[in-house]
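Hi everyone, sorry if this is the wrong subforum. Our group has a chain we'd like a structural model of before ordering constructs, and none of us has done structure prediction before. Sequence below.
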Amino acid sequence: MNAFEEITAAYIAEKRAVGYKMEKAGKVMARIAALHADMGCRCDELPRDLVEAWVAKRPGETETTRFHRMGYIRGLGEYMARMGYDAYVLPGKQGYTERESYSPYIFTDAELCALFASADRLAGSDRACQRAQAAIVMRLLYSSGLRVGEACGLCKGDVDLDAGVLAVRHAKNDKDRVVPMHAAMVSRMRAFAHAAQLEHPQYGAHELFWSLPEGRPLSTRFVYGFFRDALWGAGISHGGRGKGPRVHDLRFTFACHRLRGWVEAGDDVNALMPYLATYMGHADTRCTEYYLRLTAELFPGMVARVERECGWMVPS
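Answer:
Right subforum, don't worry. Here is the predicted structure as tokens:
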């Protein structure tokens, strides 16, 4: 390991020490180190030429993928500069314009009914097949506000159907949380688990809650493909690559509908925001406040009521 590789390893170690999982960081840093060697850079520098070469858009690459690459090189540059090395730090705003151009798609109540009905039709008669699992996961994303990776990664020990709660472990920022489930969701998940045990003998031989009969996990890619098919069946148009609706928008819809319900019930939204932040696995309420602004935009009739409760969150 040369001196530059030692620097990247120390950077990864520091990030992990403060709670980041950095699961892909080793491979990414190895590619940065290879580019560093190819360009003949000094071991104690991160020059601008290297950074600009790393962040240059690649053929066929999505802006989201490029944005993630920018994050790795920006984080490394900030670490090296802080440690006293000669490092170019990518400006913090670069790449955000493209990423933030997407507006979340918030489903109406009627669209949700059509979407879930379409998913049920696609699932077929085998209650434990891969399509049936994806149909239940879609409902879980909306009813519990989970991220799709969190839902697909559930183990049997994480699902307490008697208590009606989920344990989400090592989620974003390596945070754990307990998520209550709606009674209807508990019933669907119990029916799936019963069918899987009866119809797929291999189901009892592994720890995954969702899985194929062979014990492989339900992939987020499959869920997204199934979601696209369900959209088509529900007559909800998709704007094309990078436009949405995305499967993640079920989580956005959960948050906005929850906030709408609180406002309509006359509840103290300001007091309830920390609960929603914890429920959704946010580090603090700043991320959750975005949903409040979005809710006010989507339901203009509630803006005045929202501003009375927490006008400091919703600019007029």
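For your construct planning: Residues 95-100, 310-316 have pLDDT under 50 and may be disordered. The radius of gyration is 22 Å.
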